[in-house]
Amino acid sequence: MSLFNDFLFRKSFFDFFQEMQREGVETARRFWQSYPYKNAFFPSSLDMYEKMIDFYISLGLAPKAKYDEVCEAHEKLHRENTFLRETIKELQLKMFAEGGEKVRESWKSIIDKQIEMNKEIAKNCF
What we know:
Layout: H1 7-34, H2 45-59, H3 64-125
Helix pairs in contact: 1-2
């Protein structure tokens, strides 16, 4: 469900399913009007069918299979994203460790040179 926090995904997702619903409802209406036994079930079946269509449109529900597919894709992307974040984090830590080691070695060599210079200055003074 956290995928719905992304504005672009949410807008595209609902635009896509709104178009699917609109086309599906229009196709179902055409089919129901052309169905030869539409009134064989009970007299007000057409009214009930229209109310079901209105209820479906007002809820704006996506088919469960599509919803499950989107949730599965979201979980897959979440796992891949987590893997990439961890890999980048490990690389950054390795770079910082190597860089820190080089800085420590440089600092040690500078300090060693300073100590040697101070010893020579002390020798020259005596």
